[in-house]
User: Fold this.
Amino acid sequence: MHYQVFKMIRTYRAVLPIAGFILLFSCDNTKPSSPEAKLRFESITPKPVSATMSGETFTLTKDMKIVINGSDKELQNIASFLREKINTATGFDADVSEEVSGSGNISLSLDGANKTLESEGYELTVEEDGVKITANSPAGLLWGVQTLRQLLPVEIERSSSAPDVAWEIATGAVRDFPEYSWRGSMLDVSRHFFTVEDVKHHIDLISLYKMNILHLHLSDDQGWRIQIDSWPNLTEIGSRNAVGGGKGGFYTKQDYTEILNYAASRYITIIPEIDMPGHINAALVSYNELLPGPPIRREPAGPEENKPTPGVVHTGIEVGFSTLDIKKDVTFKFVNDVLRELAKMTPGPYLHIGGDEAAVTKKPDYIAFVNRFKEIVKANGKKMVGWEEIAQADVDSTIIVQYWSNPEHAKMAAEKGAKLIFSPAQKVYLDMQYDSTTKLGLHWAAYIEVDSSYMWDPATFVEGIDRDQILGVEAPLWSETLVTMDDVEYMLFPRLPGVAEVGWTSAENRDWQEYKSRLVNQSKRWEVMDINFYRSPKVPWGAGN
Ligand code: TNX
Assistant:
């Protein structure tokens, strides 16, 4: 039809104004979705509850706006996040506005979302003349924005403007909400320290895949990483080193607040962990009075024997040799002070007290410790989280137990009515090597290839646990062998998006064969983001990788 009009114009120049009129009003402007735009729509990760395409194209143009329905601060923040991404990559100067005018806009709304989407869900509609995202909560809206980001060409991830990109999105609708409310990543900042900037980067990485929990392992035998005013030596001495004798470090309260604020802007809850009563060497060597034994200081053995040595922070990677002493009053002064200060600086509802691998704490002492921690955490207005071993103590429905290795502990926790987080070491310990040739990482639990970390279901992983008791999943990243963010990225990618999907997408909706082609598409984004990832032979990355 276009060609005919064209011919008509050529032949009958005299009727040009009429032809123009016809062209303007009868012409079909519809542009079918490009194969690339379709592929992006099909590659949303984690996989949404539903996503259907309608075959046409929406294109970002320089006159676009981000329209918000109200002056709500959170709405504005989310809009600014999107604006920043779009303007940086496109070179446009899109505004955030409360005025609805023109077309080609992206509108964000906290009104009118379907209640069945619950608190974290969103609806995203892409039509030829605009995009609309609605949600019941700011978190849901951000997840919708993260989906939109994945629908845009990968150049949207650039840190400078990309010329000549057609900013096209396939039209269609996404309706989405998570399977589990706890979708976490844990970063061990004790064995090696990671700066505030590193942690922010980590937050950016997990947010792209809609994770909402960042657990910070703030203390261990090898380093104490958080300022505690009432016990200054914890950081004065206890933060000096890292595994292998490397550079230590710690977060001041101000640093910690900066991390919290950044996480909050991405709707991520920080779970701070102080590991007790074992894994406590960094504190013991900072304060002699905490050393187990009689109040008169005994002569401790040297670090080569793995005994706490005053003033010397352990730099090896062996575990299970340190403990607090339950008979000492000063022990509970310490625990009270630390948890009180930590509770005060943490707005979120949880404190993680560790509780793992207390190999040299006598069993009755261990149970008494956990019961005391429980009371102290409660008195500070927080909910206690602990590694699975705490299931041996008096845990109840107010307690969250983090399963990592022994199914008996998980069952015990469930029988006592506690809630569970699933971090099975042989599936989601992302410090595990991919295979025997991986240069970084450990392998005591397993070699974990990308397919293995994806193919499991928290609801059936340990028999006999009620789905309702499972809050979700968390992927720990222990840092004995990880020094730089490049190392961190290499262990996270490509496994982390898969763990995020285990938490977000129902088991029925997940399939490795289908998922692995989505990963290929996601990897193009990682390349633009300069993420250091493992080119697993399990994934058909395609040419150029
Ligand atoms: C076990 S799992 C640990 C950590 C180590 C990790 C190394 C758990 C609760 N404790 O102390 O860093 O293995 O993979």
